[in-house]
């Protein structure tokens, strides 16, 4: 009586088993890396108040918060990234994280701020950071009358609105606006020429 030789396990079957084990291990490692990355936080700056375009960025106006930003962490400024001479290149809302694109060097900025007086008061909807149009009505020479109002600067940003002191504090007609440096001469000429100035929120009729 002869015995049949035991069949050997196919080599390809062993390879598939090893590949399966490797895939399971890689899957576990991948999940672990994703969970670990989600748990990692980074300290970044968060605005405590609305910061208008052109305002200086100072540490007193920010708090440090720990957030999980993943791959976009380099797009936001940490406390050590805030340097003297930085200004807001756009308006930052209260509670907003400070993105690197919203910070600029003051020397390279094309904007500046100027204080004006509104002849018709300031709309209640206007606040710090509000984009507005600057309108003016030129004074007719040798009269006390004004020409019809027209747009002087089409896009400016409100930097600050002073308020009177006391229990019945109210807005004054003065406000500080951020404008392009190229528009400064026109605004100053309108002021010295006695024109009546007013601000209109964008999207509203004059």
Can you describe this structure?
Helix content is 18%, strand content 27%. The strands form 3 sheets. A 5-stranded antiparallel β-sheet has the order 5-8-7-6-9. It has a two-stranded antiparallel sheet with strand order 1-2. Strands 3-4 form a two-stranded antiparallel sheet. It has 2 domains: 42-107, Antifreeze-like/N-acetylneuraminic acid synthase C-terminal domain (Type Iii Antifreeze Protein Isoform Hplc 12, Alpha-Beta Complex); 110-201. It starts with 10 loop residues before the first helix and ends in a 5-residue tail after the last strand. The protein has helices at 11-39, 184-192; strands at 42-47, 62-67, 86-88, 103-105, 111-117, 131-137, 150-160, 174-180, 196-201. The model has no long low-confidence stretch (mean pLDDT 83).
| N-to-C series of helices and strands | HEEEEEEEEHE
Global mean pLDDT = 83
**Rounded radius of gyration (Å):** 31 Å
The oligomeric status of these chains comes to single chain
Q: Give unreliable regions as ranges.
A: none
User: What is the strand content?
Assistant: 25-35%
The number of helical elements comes to: 2
Q: How are the strands of the largest sheet arranged?
A: 5-8-7-6-9
Category from helices, strands and their pairing: alpha+beta
Care to count the β-strands? Answer: 9
- Biggest sheet details: 5 strands, antiparallel
Q: What gap, in angstroms, lies between the N and C termini?
A: 112 Å
Principal-axis shape equals elongated
The helix fraction, in percent, is 10-25%
Number of domains: 2
């Amino acid at each position: 009586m002869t015995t049949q030789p035991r069949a050997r396990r196919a080599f390809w079957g062993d390879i598939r088993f090893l590949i399966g084990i490797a895939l399971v291990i890689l899957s576990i490692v991948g999940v672990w890396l994703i969970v670990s990355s989600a748990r990692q936080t980074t300290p970044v700056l968060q605005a405590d108040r609305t910061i208008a375009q052109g305002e200086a960025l100072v540490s007193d106006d920010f708090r440090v918060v720990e957030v999980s930003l993943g791959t976009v962490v380099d797009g936001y400024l940490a406390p050590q990234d805030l340097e003297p001479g930085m200004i807001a290149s756009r308006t930052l809302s209260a509670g907003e994280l400070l993105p690197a694109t919203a910070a600029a060097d003051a020397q390279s900025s094309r904007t500046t701020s100027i204080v004006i007086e509104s002849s018709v008061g300031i709309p209640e909807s206007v606040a710090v950071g509000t984009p507005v149009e600057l309108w003016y009505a030129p004074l007719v020479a040798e009269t006390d009358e004004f020409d019809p109002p027209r747009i002087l600067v089409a896009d400016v940003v409100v930097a600050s609105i002073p308020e009177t002191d006391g229990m019945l504090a109210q807005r004054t007609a003065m406000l500080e606006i951020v404008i392009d440096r190229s528009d400064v001469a026109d605004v100053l000429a309108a002021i010295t020429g006695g024109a009546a100035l007013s601000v209109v929120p964008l999207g509203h009729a004059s």
